[in-house]
């Protein structure tokens, strides 16, 4: 095998989907310059697409902080210039070839995946028996997510195919493991060494901490530009000098706590891991890995692609402390609407949402445009030693919903989401009461699988209608106009109708015992009669309080 092999700027490794649903492999150079020809990235996992997207964004931040779209050397210094540069790129509808090719050619030597001294996104000298763990290729491939001692029962690959990766596959998963790796590399001898020295452990990869949110446009070019935050948050200043990792010296120490980066190119190419790919007979068959660079996540607001939570315990000193928050794995994206898009007091909005708000307010994108946001998160086990779940979802709505124009609508949407939560609770209560009427005690009824299914069914059945309703809202409608009232009335009628139908189905599927019912004494020796028909009548009363009849023409 060659010592120097597979340059990411020349070789095909990025997966992208065309409008006819075919998927091509592209070099990093072609993925940038032909982005307008592709609908989206199409990697094996949504988390892999995020890792690749951030690499591509790091290139854009670096190039266009130094060069104009015409390829002239013109470092950004003023916010007005950054805004004008973004607008010129957006209007062109495709990325300019000269500045991108000129820059990438100047750093070509830093993009070799296999190199005797400085392989891309890898560190050779630190991966020793004292510091690193060794895993097979089947763990590097997170679409399989198989560890050395926990083989996957239903694997997507088998035999030799799961024990080796091609160079292009290894390149994609190299980015992924750097961003989302679990903490299983922090174990054994290396963990004891760090614990005894009082050294902090690096934990999971930086992106594994995040509830990731990014913008999705009409094609890959729009994905890149809409997520390319040309100005520091609020539009008040340009970023500090962009410093992607390939322009830095190879990091030589494992598990290094660093200061929070001050530019997005450095953040997007953060080396959360020190990795070394191991090759055999032309394939990557294993890798050595240990902790890399990490920083304190508290108030790390440079990170634009995450939702946030207030750490109440850490905030007791007086200053509010926020930390990245993973998405709720049991909820659709619209149920986190206020967490993602509310600019009100007590909520730190994701930087990418603030950026879309800014370019919309400044008239840099079409005022009638719909916008899509995508989210994803990795769920780990309690020890954060392996993946247990990967969540992804998306939501489309009128861009003005996240500007000042849509402020009153955000409140109304949040009210309807809360109403959905109350309705789901009442569906669950109905199912519990039917179980009790059939003979179950209170505790076993609440734990019954049929009860959980009833609530899940409600959220499942309102999911598509709610998304459609959200997309139909035009925030420019006059406040308290008939259009606004009709839209709210239409949704409430839909939600109530679905809930009532599910309630009827629960009653109809109840057995004879639940229909007849029974009397039960509570702890105060007070008797109450439970039956499926009575439970349904009580359910309707509750729904009428959530969705009053006069507001539903009911």
Short overview:
With 554 residues, the protein is of the alpha+beta class. It has helices at 28-33, 46-64, 79-92, 97-106, 137-140, 160-163, 167-180, 188-197, 220-227, 264-268, 337-341, 351-361, 407-438, 442-446, 449-472, 482-509, 512-516, 532-546, 549-552, and strands at 5-7, 14-17, 23-26, 40-41, 112-114, 133-136, 212-216, 256-257, 273-280, 283-291, 293-294, 307-310, 322-325, 370-380, 387-398, 518-521, 527-530. The longest helix has 32 residues, at 407-438.
Describe this structure as you would to a colleague.
The chain has 19 helices and 17 strands. With 554 residues, it is an alpha+beta fold. Strands 3-2-4 form a 3-stranded antiparallel beta sheet. The mean pLDDT is 91.
The overall pLDDT, averaged over residues, is: 91
Spatial sequence of strands, sheet with the most strands: 3-2-4
Q: Strand tally, please?
A: 17
Continuous helix count: 19
Shape: globular
Question: How many angstroms separate the termini?
Answer: 75 Å
Main sheet properties:
3 strands, antiparallel
Structural class assignment: alpha+beta
Question: How helical, in percent, are the residues?
Answer: 40-55%
Low-confidence stretches: none
Computed CA radius of gyration, to the nearest angstrom: 27 Å
- Percent of residues in beta strands? 15-25%
